């Protein structure tokens, strides 16, 4: 069940996509400034000609919409616009994983690396595990690849999963994650 504290933590730690926004803002500001200078100087009777729009106008007069140059230019600008739109609308990957809390005024989070290290330590401490090869964090799942010298590991994956689940239960990351464990056999 999501509480107001959970929603506040998820919102506070959401990725902001600063670089795409900054690049888009700079490009739009430069285009607006050049347009303003061109229009104002043309009204004053002395066009600035910062952009050689005469060549662009001549090219546009001589080029049909079906020509490959016009289609390529339109496709490139459309792709650039969709890229900026996608970067603005789609959430990025946050640097912090929010932790469940009961107070909306107290927000807690852990780095992705810190959560991976905590999961790896819990899996490595399970009896019968000699090491952890990899931990992958997914939005709703944690995947652990553990190394064991035990040949017959009938319920070892369940014990490792329980140890990792217990650690995740104490940390309480948002959203809740299920655990999947894969064991690799290695002689000691």
TrEMBL record:
<keyword id="KW-1133">Transmembrane helix</keyword>
<protein>
    <recommendedName>
        <fullName>DUF6286 domain-containing protein</fullName>
    </recommendedName>
</protein>
<dbReference type="InterPro" id="IPR046253">
    <property type="entry name" value="DUF6286"/>
</dbReference>
<dbReference type="Pfam" id="PF19803">
    <property type="entry name" value="DUF6286"/>
</dbReference>
<keyword id="KW-0812">Transmembrane</keyword>
<feature type="transmembrane region" description="Helical">
    <location>
        <begin position="68"/>
        <end position="90"/>
    </location>
</feature>
<keyword id="KW-0472">Membrane</keyword>
<feature type="domain" description="DUF6286">
    <location>
        <begin position="79"/>
        <end position="183"/>
    </location>
</feature>
